[in-house]
Amino acid sequence: MEAVNAIGRRKAAVARVFVTEGTGKIVINKRDLENYFPSSILQFIVKQPLNTLNVPDKYDIRINLGGGGYKGQSEAARLGIARALVKINPNDKSALRAAGFMTRDPRVVERKKPGQPKARKRFQFSKR
Length: 128
Fold this sequence. Notes:
The protein is elongated, with a radius of gyration of 18 Å. The protein has a single domain, classed as Ribosomal Protein S5, domain 2. Strand 1 (4-10) and strand 2 form a beta hairpin. The protein has four helices and five strands. The longest helix is centred in the middle third of the chain and has 19 residues, at 70-88. It is of the alpha+beta class and 128 residues long. Helix 2 (40-52) runs parallel beside helix 3. It has a five-stranded mixed beta sheet with strand order 1-2-5-3-4.
């Protein structure tokens, strides 16, 4: 099996995911998963699609991550892995969709408007 690639995005984070058959090694930006995401919660988020399909040790995954913060990056990687697994086996799509891993979360930061300090916040109103 040659490498299957997919893209996952979340907020400002972009994950390019390459999946090959292997032993379950996950490498992010040339660092292993435990080194890149020291938090066990973020490691769990990245591995969720593999655990849902009961194939945590079947594939080697290489991810190029950029942009955003660590939470957005982990969720972008999760979406990319889920999309790559569906490319490998389209029958898995229903299970991954039911778990919510196939949906791109569209929420992004709202832009700042002119004449205001932030997107929604207004400067203090002075009557006199």
